[in-house]
Amino acid sequence: RPADDWWRRAVVYQVYPRSFADADGDGTGDVNGIRAKLPYLADLGVDAIWISPWYPSPLLDGGYDVSDYRDINPDFGTLADADALIAEAHALGLRILIDLVPNHCSWEHPWFKAALAAGKGSPERERFWFRDGTNGQPPTNWPAAFGGGAWQQIEDGQWYLHMFDISQPDWNWDHPEVIEEFDAILRFWFDRGIDGFRIDVADSMAKDASLPDVPLHEGQPTREKYVGNPFYDQPGVHTIHQRWRAIADEYADTPQGPRVFVAEAWLSPAERLAQYVRSNELHSAFNFDVLRCAWDAKELRQVIDYTTDSLWAVGAPATWVLSNHDTIRHRTRYGRDQRDALEGAGVVPTDLELGLRRARAAALLELALPGGAYIYQGDELGLPEVEDLPEEVLDDPTWERSGHTVRGRDGCRVPIPWSGSEPPYGFGSGEGQPWLPQPAGWGPLTAEAQAGDPGSHLNLYKAALRIRREHEALGEGRMRWDEDVPAGVLSFTRDPGFRCVVNLGDEAVDLPAGAEVLLASDPVPDGLLPTDTAVWLRA
Ligand code: TEU
């Protein structure tokens, strides 16, 4: 296969640096920790890693509050460590994507500090959204993502816009200096050898500068991304993406191959998302509709169909994702019957054994679908969401900003258990406590414990990724649903000669006669496919 289309079929592993691996033993993950685990990732069989923000940051939103886009957070390491990581990863055949956070920065960013100091009407304020309010009220009724309004008033009476936390002022993307600054940031990292960027809230940078209010829903300003929303999916975002694509394309004809973008945009329906991956824009975009699906054959099939149809219409590959650092881990989600399992951590009863079976089956489904796939760190170990973190350790801003009503996203960010039978499970030396406490009982889930067990979750992922690399049917390409299966079963064929069958129904079904089982998510006795089980077949 040509190296230049690697991103169309790549399996990318998401590293959340704070929680991945701790080389210096201070209880916080770091760049040298990632370096130490590169052989693990190469052995796992992924093609690339995406590293969530590693920049200097007060970490008020886990690093999505960037105070310097051209450096490494001293808690995580140095630029020299990052350079070494890039070189070592490339030597192992792993590509590196990093996170670009272009909608907002941290209130500690020098440009924002300069804007506060320079005062009303200054050119420094023009790079952000500073406005006067009316009668003590903010300029618009826009809601912030983590609760409360999106405008924060400062001492001189002006308000600044923050679509996320108050510590994350929104950039003014109508300003040439902001545009040029991000051009330079892209080049800075491309020149250091980065293979691409995941674009944070890729649908939000452009704003309707006439600042209209949003409609009310049940008395509250809506957070819905309706068509025409003044701060989401504005036409201006596409101008920005086209500009970035041109920059990435300047690097395309180098031995390293193309530099790529993946959009994070929680936009439905897929036709809307497909606009972001037209050939002169971003290369790919996460599909979150599958992530939001219940464990239901009909619903999944429908979502897979309209996703692939709308992406293929613009020539883009599908990009599947089951979990990330913002969502409840799918082992836990799939262990629940409730369709609203994405919300309400801690209140819905969870069957973790059921969740694990389904997570195993889901891994085979995800990795057999056409296109690329993302794996969130720890999902290869079958980690569940940690739902009983003590309130005093909760760190996600949603906890604070929601007035302690939403527990937030910490439960999927608990440091990875690598080895040993008790905390910190090889995450650091134990000298510095892990920044979030790990639960007791994770001993059997460590990478070390699973490595030697042929039936482990880790070894299922490894086997699937090995077959995916070897089997020419997998990755980019087309799929065809097989209709000769009972309701509740998903079955599709990839050419040549590869079939994936997933039983999401209530009873065991017959496996197709004469098929050779390449891989099964759980044992398949007597030609039967049990419930919540998936198989890969040579058809
Ligand atoms: O998330 C963007 C985003 O829209 C999320 O708030 C999403 O809607 C929510 O988490 C769904 O559960 C990105 C990052 O992934 C997230 O970690 C950051 O907090 C956010 O941007 C702000 O940078």
Task: Give me some keywords for this one.
single chain; 539 residues; alpha/beta; TIM Barrel; Oligo-1,6-glucosidase, domain 2; Immunoglobulin-like; eight-stranded parallel sheet; five-stranded antiparallel sheet; 15 helices; 20 strands; globular; binds 1-O-alpha-D-glucopyranosyl-D-fructose
In short:
With 539 residues, the protein is an alpha/beta fold. It has helices at 17-20, 31-44, 79-91, 110-118, 123-126, 176-191, 236-250, 270-274, 288-292, 297-313, 330-333, 352-368, 397-401, 447-451, 457-470; strands at 11-15, 48-51, 95-100, 130-131, 151-153, 159-161, 196-199, 216-217, 220-221, 260-263, 284-285, 319-321, 372-376, 480-481, 489-494, 498-503, 509-510, 516-520, 528-529, 533-538. The protein is 27% helix and 14% strand.
Describe what you observe in this structure.
This protein has 539 residues and is of the alpha/beta class. 27% of the residues lie in helices and 14% in strands. The chain folds into three domains: 3-103 and 176-457, Glycosidases (TIM Barrel); 110-161, Oligo-1,6-glucosidase, Domain 2 (Oligo-1,6-glucosidase, domain 2, Alpha-Beta Complex), CATH 3.90.400; 478-538, Immunoglobulin-like (Sandwich), CATH 2.60.40. The strands form five sheets. It has an eight-stranded parallel sheet. A five-stranded antiparallel sheet has the order 14-15-16-20-18. Strands 4-6-5 form a three-stranded antiparallel sheet, with no helix packed on it. The protein starts with 10 loop residues before the first strand and ends with a strand. The mean pLDDT is 95. Bound molecules: 1-O-alpha-D-glucopyranosyl-D-fructose. The site of 1-O-alpha-D-glucopyranosyl-D-fructose (TEU) has 12 residues, from loops. Belongs to the glycosyl hydrolase 13 family. Residues 14-413 form the Glycosyl hydrolase family 13 catalytic domain. GO terms for molecular function: alpha-amylase activity. This is Alpha amylase catalytic region.
